[in-house]
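Q: Could you fold this chain for me?
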Amino acid sequence: MSSRVFSASRSTCRRYTPAFQRICLSTGSTGSSDGPSLESRRPRRIFSGIQPTGIPHLGNYLGALSNWVALQRTAHPSDELIFSVVGWHALTMPQKPKELAKSRQDMLAVLLAIGLDPKRAIIFHQDHNPAHTELAWIFNCMTSLGQLRRMTTWKSKIATARNAKDESEIDESQLNAGLLTYPVLQAADILAYRATHVPVGDDQTQHIELCRDLADLFNRRYKGKTTMFPLPQIIKTQTKRVLSLRDPSAKMSKSSPDLNSRILLTDTAAQIQSKIRSAVTDGLGELTYDPEHRPGTANLLTILGAITGQDDLQALAARYAGKGHAELKADTADAVEEAIKGPRAEFERLRTETAYLEEVARDGARLARDKTDGTMAEARVRVGLA
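A: Sure. Below is the predicted structure, expressed as structure tokens.
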């Protein structure tokens, strides 16, 4: 591994601003939905992935990526961490090949820039390990259409991409098979490593339930001397969902056609200020935290609270007594800039080091394949293909 690999735990956090340190050191989970707490000393194998469809936005960072850094910091030395750039998932929506190739490399640079350490975690491209797609085909042959049609995320994803106002406008006949079955590939991503824990947001809980169902079905259908797959447990992030700055009824998304709806980790201070200044709020009086009736205002308070480490958003809103949205927006823009300027500068440095990024990807892929070779050999035997 190159000498340029840097430690990304507390020392990495100290390289950045106080706002970044607060996120890096405090964002995480108090435990999983149905298993032991993060303080458990039983070894865990943690897997998560992110699509390489453009530069991550603030919602990705606060909801997932900063949690990965926190997991890296808090995980017991016996825990294994596996983080992947999931290129196969990106193909569920139309992609321009040259842009996707660049996005894959940029995403790897982002993961290193925010503080993930290749010496501590396996960091790799999903498409460099054929175990993912091979196991996905086995699971596809075990998954009913009824299960897939109950998944709620594919309709919202295609609705966002086509700028539809309502999911009812979506014509299912236009749905590609990959978009319908990508939760099965997601299950294969996890189970190829026999992962025990998966950090996800609320919108992915249904997919992890499918993953657990497939693991259980495989274990019962193809029995052996030992149980083949664990039933992965969910690690939920503490940060609430970050919403679109232009449409607070929807989450912040890379696929939204409105560039002002999201803050990218590469945005300049001026761009951040402009986007937050134009964020949709309301004309009501005293600021309050009311996600149902004042989603735009609540979204800004959520962002500011997540960055500054303030969990009581009602109390945070009370600090703006006698003030208005202008002050809230200014403070939020300043906080966001303070939080991302360190990772932004590190990303701009790393994205030009092509040889180093290729080295990290190559080493990560080798380690990933080492983890899955035994699993796939056993899976083939159990289904009768050995």
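A (continued): The first strand starts at residue 45 and ends at 50.
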